[in-house]
Design brief:
Enolase-like, domain 1, TIM Barrel, 2 domains, four-stranded antiparallel β-sheet, 37% helix
Length: 369
Amino acid sequence: MKITAIDVWALALPLTRPYSLSGGRLRFDRLDSTLVRLTTDEGLIGWGEGCPWGSTYLPAFARGIRAGIEELAPAVLGLDPRRTDVVYRAMNLALPGHPYVKSPIDMACWDIAAQSAGLPLCDLLGGRTDGLVRLHSSIPSGTSDELMAEIDLARTEGYTFHSAKVGGDVESDIDRMRFLDARMEPGEEVTFDVNRAWLPAEAVAALNATTELHRVVEQPCETLDQHLQVRRLVSQPMAIDESLQTMGDLLRIIETGACEVVGLKIGRVGGLTVARRMRDLCIEAGIRMNIEDTGGTTLQATAAVHLAQATPEPFRRATWLCVEHLSLDPVEGGARNDGTGHTGAPTELGLGAHPDIAALGDAVACHHE
């Protein structure tokens, strides 16, 4: 089997309403996603997606994916997509770095590999585990009342796990964290996600003032070095998200005991091939994971759910479905909130999610062998 064509679509994804994080310094009203279709000489087709959360959140942007695929296509065409490590090495030789560019091609290869094996994708990523995948809501920055109103809305959709975006003025953040903590119901979880907004001194002040809360605090500072500086001076369980980009980052996180939780975002680390390796290393180190992605349609969310479904409890902590923030989702099938704040990986062969070609419009690039 070999890859004979790589087709690329650009898809504008309006949000249902503007979304802010990091104390409001980052604000978005739409995303720009890239969908990739790999076609093989044996008739199997695989789909992948790459969707950065805008161009200001991380060193990644949508047009970079499409330009990067143009560089990668000559190296990937003609390869067997089932040999995922071989394809990934070829991409690394053709374009060092830029992991987010490689993720949609890698996802599509895994989709084909699972179809060829006659398995749902999760069974190729380690095997389907029992139980459903718990979902977490994503609560944008705002006042205490605004945050609580968003949590109440998420509760109506079945969510019992919330990621509340703080990271503004420290004194106000202290009030917000206490306000939300006091209003959590039995069995409900809340993570305080700072999204890198605090300086180390601010993080130490905020966290030492709220030691009674016992909630996970996510990515308080910009860099891993700053996070470690804070870690030495506070007692809360902590999560690292944006600072986990490479396997080297994860090795350092484990070596330094930097956190109890990581945000394992598939597109950011370079795709399912890399994310699966990181998943296994986190299990060995006893680190829990939010397995998800930075954005995108049900296509991208379903890939994350497959990896989460193949991850044993209690290591899979929660997964986010960006699609619930979108007003457009031209994808059939895939993983969806079942109304209780949970989902499961599809049982269909491969990814189990299929874009509606008619809704995508014309491809922006077509690469053929």
